[in-house]
Structure formats: C-alpha cells, structure tokens
From TrEMBL:
Keywords: ATP-binding, Ligase, Nucleotide-binding
Alphabetized GO MF terms: ATP binding; ligase activity; metal ion binding
Domain ATP-grasp: 122-320
The protein's name: ATP-grasp domain-containing protein
Organism field: Kribbella caucasensis
Keyword Nucleotide-binding: yes
Listed InterPro entries: ATP-dep_AA_Ligase (IPR052032), ATP-grasp (IPR011761), BL00235/CARNS1_N (IPR041472)
C-alpha cells in the first residue's frame, strides 16, 4: 500500500527502511524530512511517522532482503530513488541488498556484513594490523575454557552478531566462564541472524570505552560525534549512560583518529555511516567493533545538541552520494542516563518524573514503560529493561552529570515483584 502525503519537490528521494522506537529515533526523521522526500518501508501502517514522510509501503516483512528488493525496484521504476537508509541493526544487511540492487551508495553487502558479523570484523582487522583485543570464535564451553586459558583471565564472552553490549560478560575464572556461558551463547533477539558458531572469547582490554559516529563518503572517514560510555551492572557490560563533549580532547588525538581510519580501511567501508566502539587502554586505542549504522542510545542526538552537527542529515547525505556537512557550531556537553528497577519481574504501577525545581540544563525526561508492564534490571532486563531516560545539555561534564543526578532523584516509580505462581505470598512492594 502506498500513500502520498505531500507534493513531490526537487529534494532527493530517500528510501528509509523501518524506524525503530519513536522515543529513540524520531529526532533523525525530524532532521531529514525538510531536506529529503522520504518514502518508508514498514511492516505496519505508520502512525507518528506520517509527520515526516511523504509516502510509504507496508510490506509483509522488512526482514527479508528479497521482499525489500522487489518493492524497492518497483518504487524506483515509478519514482527514482536517490539513496537508501536504515539505522535499525536488524535490517542494515537487508538494506544493503536494496542499495546494491539499485546501484546506490552503501550497496556493498559484504562490506556491511563485515560489520554485522563480529568475527568477520575481527578477521579483517587482524589481516590489516589494526589494534584490537585478541579474539577466538568457539563452539562449546570446553573450547571456550581452552581459549581462555591461552589468553589468560579475565576474558570477555561475546555473541557473534548482537549489538548494544547484549550478551557481553567479563569472566575472571573457569568457574565464572562456565556459569556465564549460557548468557553469552543463548542471549538473542527475535530478529538477530543465526550462526552455528555463536560466541567469541576475547582478550580483556582494560581501559575506558568510547564510541565514534562517522560519516564515510567515497572512503573519506569524517567523525562527527565522540561519546564516552558509562558502564554498569558488572560483570555485564550494560551501557547505562553516555557523555558527548564537543571539546573532548580525544577529538584531537592523532593516534585514535588514525586507528579509526585504518579500521574502516581494513573492512573496506567506503560509503555510509558507522558507529565504532573503541577501548582506550594504556597501550593505546583498541578496536572493539564497528557498526554499519548511526549510533543508538541517543548518542547522535547528544552530538547534535552538543556540537550542532546533524547526524540525520549526515547519514542521508552519504546515502544519496553527497558529501556530508558535519561542521560544529557550538561547544556544549550532552549526557544521557538510563534507569532501571531494582528486582527481576517487577510489575510496574507507575513511572513518572517530578519536574519541580529541576535545573535548566535538563533537556528530556522520558518514561519508557507504563503501568502493567513487567521488567527486570540487567542482566535479565538488558536495554529492554529500562524504565526511563533523561538527557541533559550543559556547559561542562560536571554540570551535565549534576543535571543527570537531579533527574535521577526526580524519577519515581512503583511496582510489585511478581512471585512464582506456586507461591501464595502477597507480591512484595518495590519502588523509589
């Protein structure tokens, strides 16, 4: 089904595959819509997206590359498409098939798969000598134990093809490895690709982790957003927050930028946007992973607020074969913090912020769940266990952190822990 929303203009015609959650991705469409004619492929009728798109096609699925290619070819015959864009990890490989079929930028399926499959990433980086933790693909817990002994504890267990640190855990001994094997091996999402050999055992890289979002145009890598991660719930690698400082001294770190560029060259990434995760160690930067999409967790949004460089417009530009403009126009700091319940299987009764007397640096206070939903903290809850987030924009990291602390104090939630069906006790109250 197609529905035209506005008159056709001379703006480039951009095909966007799916959107993701409104509360995390609307800002991208808001940026792109004034300068591009957006046609969207979805698997359900659009709702809020209608404010930003000119037309859409509802497909039986947006996870099947053949279905997407067939629909895209039909659309391209009717109205030539200038670029194809996707920021949903589960659909980036299928979107690459569409770009390839139409002869558009980003249409290198093997290139995107070298990002999607973390084992292929590691192999390409190793072949080109890019600094990274040593990594071994294993099939069984016994193989993992042998590998860990060779690498030396602690090691990292990591799923082969998930994002957002899902299934990632640090183990300090053979016993911890055996206890956490199922977590790394079995953690999945409904739309994740399946591999017979699923787990990487990796050398532990000690340091602090950053991410860099970059626009890549004809092989030229231009970073536009550098974030420092806040990690919680050890030994799991839950990303509980991020800070983007427009004046971060790492932006001028020649060694870091060289490693970033060399990593893109190693995987032959020529056109598109990337979200690269790097561990800053005493031995220098070490590549953790490269994702063939714009970052999640509101990181690019923080970059937009802190620097003025628009991530949505950068992504759309390179998708259409245009040189991106990511010139900053301000020097601020943006931060995000995510919030969780205290106990597993908490049935929420309310989630709300008291907005009284909050500092002016508060940007957004966003409940993610409502009464009646059941959630858990990490590791059971992972990123889908979050009940709310807050963003702050300020003049310094300290001021930004203070604003997030104030937002955390302003969050009030209540709920009851759901007990097993065989237990006749009353639900235990929980909240803050």
């Amino acid at each position: 089904m197609n529905a035209v929303m506005n008159e056709t203009t001379e703006r480039p015609h951009l095909l966007v595959v799916a959107t993701g959650m409104r509360l995390f991705r609307e800002y991208i469409l808001r940026s792109i819509a004034p300068q591009y004619r957006i046609h969207m492929f979805l698997h359900t009728e659009p709702t809020w997206e209608k404010d930003y798109i000119e037309a859409w096609t509802v497909l039986e699925t947006t996870l099947d590359a053949d279905v997407l290619v067939e629909a895209a070819r039909k659309l391209h015959d009717e109205q030539p498409i200038d670029g194809v864009l996707c920021w949903d990890e589960a659909r980036i490989l299928q979107t690459a098939h569409v770009a390839q079929a139409l002869g558009l930028p980003g249409g290198d399926v093997a290139m995107v798969n070298r990002c999607r499959d973390k084992h292929l990433t590691r192999t390409a980086l190793a072949e080109h000598g890019v600094p990274q933790p040593e990594s071994v693909l294993v099939d069984t817990v016994d193989e993992a134990l042998v590998t860990a002994d060779k690498l030396g504890y602690p090691v990292i267990l990591k799923p082969r093809a998930l994002a957002a640190s899902l299934g990632v855990v640090k183990v300090n001994s053979a016993e911890e490895l055996k206890d956490n094997w199922a977590f790394a091996h079995d953690t999945t999402v409904p739309e994740a690709p399946h591999y017979d050999v699923k787990v990487l055992v990796e050398e532990f890289a000690d340091g602090y982790e950053i991410s860099i979002d970059s626009a890549v145009y004809q092989g030229e890598v231009t970073p536009f957003c550098l974030a420092r991660k806040e990690i919680g719930y050890p030994p799991y690698a839950e990303e509980v927050g991020h800070f983007v400082d427009a004046a971060d001294p790492l932006l001028a770190d020649e060694q870091l930028i060289r490693v970033l560029v060399e990593a893109h060259q190693a995987i032959a990434f020529t056109d598109g946007v990337t979200h690269t995760e790097i561990m800053m160690t005493a031995d220098g930067p070490k590549l953790i992973e490269i994702n063939a999409r714009i970052g999640g967790d509101m990181i690019p949004y923080l970059g937009l607020k802190a620097t003025g460089a628009d991530p949505g417009l950068a992504a759309a530009a390179v998708a259409c074969g245009r040189k991106p403009d990511v010139t900053p126009d301000r020097t601020l700091v943006g931060g995000v913090r995510f919030f969780y319940v205290d106990e597993n299987d908490t049935v929420l009764e309310s989630v709300e912020f008291d907005r009284t007397g909050l500092p002016e640096t508060i940007d957004q206070l966003v409940p993610l769940m409502t009464a009646g939903q059941t959630t858990s903290p990490p590791p059971a809850g992972t990123l889908w266990g979050r009940i709310a987030y807050a963003t702050v924009v300020a003049g310094s990291v300290d001021e930004c952190r203070a604003g997030l602390d104030a937002a955390e104090k302003a969050l009030h939630w209540s709920g009851a822990v759901k007990l097993p069906a065989t237990d006749e006790k009353e639900p235990e109250e929980a909240g803050q």
